[in-house]
Amino acid sequence: MPPEVAVVAEGALLVGVVATTAEWSLGLRAYLRDHAQGVRLEVLADRAAVSSALGRLDVLVVDDVMRTLTVAEVARARETGVRVIGVCDPAGGLGAAHLQRLGADEVIAADGPVGLLAGAVTSAGKRPPLEGLPSWPASLMPPAPAPAVAARRGLSIWAKVSGGPGLTETVVAAADHLARRRRVLLVEADQVAPVLVSRLMRAPDGGLAWALSRAAQGLDAFPDGLSGPRPDGARPVGAFDAVCAPYGTTVAVQAQHLERLVAQALRSYEHVLVEMGTDAMLAGPGRQGGPGSRVLTMASSIVVMAQSDPDGAARLVSWRAAFVGTGATAPCHAVFGRTGRSRYERHHLASVVSANCAGHPFTGTHFLPEDPKVPRARWNAELVVSGPWRAEVARLADQVAVEAVGSGGRRAPYGRPRSGRSVPGAG
Question: What's the pLDDT tens digit per position in 125-139?
Answer without folding.
Answer: 776 665 544 444 444
